[in-house]
C-alpha cells in the first residue's frame, strides 16, 4: 500500500494519498492548502485518483477539494451529516484570509457507517465518529486508520468549532470505534505525526482519565 502525507497551510493539516502499488489506483483524503503539491505528487507517482474522501469539512481539510476535483476529474465523498459544515464554508473562508475564495464543492456520493471503500486489493471500512463534527468519518484499512480530527497523537479534536457536539460524544466515538482496534494499528490524523491505537490507549491524557481540567 502506498501512503503519502502532504502537510499544508498554517494549520499544518495532513492530506493523505492512499494507493495500490500494482494498479496505481488511489484515493485522496482531505485535500487542503497543499493541493498543488498533492496534484504534482499524484502525477509523479503515476496514480489514478478518481475519488476524494473527506473525513470532515473544516476549511483547512477542504479548501483544495474543488481544485483537485477539476484537475483529476474526481468525485467527492462525504457523510451526509457533514453537509451543514460544508455549507458553512463561505463563512469560514471569510474568517481566515488564507482560505478566501474557497469554493463549496458539489458532493457526488454520501458515505455512511459500515460502507466499504476499495483501493485495489485493500478495503477500508467507514466508521462514523461524531464529536469533532456531526458527520465526521474515519477510514479503517487493515492496520491503517485515517481518523481526521477525531484523535491525535496525545490529544483529541476540538468540539467547539463548527459542527462540534460534546467532549462526551467525541470520547465515546473514540473509545467505541477506534480504541477497540488492534494496538499495533497505525493512526494517521488530520494534524501531527502518525501514532498507534496502543500508544493512545495507554497514554493519551484525554482518554486515560489522567487529564485534570481546572
Ligand atoms: Zn477539523
Ligand atoms: Zn483539522
Description:
With 214 residues, the chain is an alpha/beta fold. The protein has a single domain (2-208), classed as Ribonuclease Z/Hydroxyacylglutathione hydrolase-like (Metallo-beta-lactamase, Chain A, 4-Layer Sandwich). The protein has eight helices and 14 strands. A six-stranded mixed beta sheet has the order 1-2-3-4-5-6, with helices on one face. A six-stranded mixed beta sheet has the order 7-8-9-10-13-14. Strands 11-12 form a two-stranded antiparallel ribbon. The model has no long low-confidence stretch (mean pLDDT 96). One zinc ion binds at residues 56, 58, 132, 149.
The molecules bound to the chains, other than polymers, are:
zinc ion
Helix tally? 8
State the separation between the terminal residues, measured CA to CA: 44 Å
CATH topology: Metallo-beta-lactamase, Chain A
Low-confidence stretches: none
* CATH class placement: Alpha Beta
Rounded to the nearest angstrom, the radius of gyration is 16 Å
What are the SSEs and their pairings?
Blueprint (H helix, E strand, L loop, with lengths): L1 E7 L4 E7 L5 E5 L5 H10 L3 E6 L5 H4 L2 H8 L2 E5 L3 H5 L1 H7 L13 E3 L4 E4 L2 E7 L8 E5 L2 E5 L2 E2 L2 E2 L10 H12 L7 E4 L5 E2 H7 L1 H4 L6
Parallel strand pairs: 3-4, 4-5, 5-6, 10-13
Antiparallel strand pairs: 1-2, 2-3, 7-8, 8-9, 9-10, 11-12, 13-14
Bound molecules: zinc ion (2 copies).
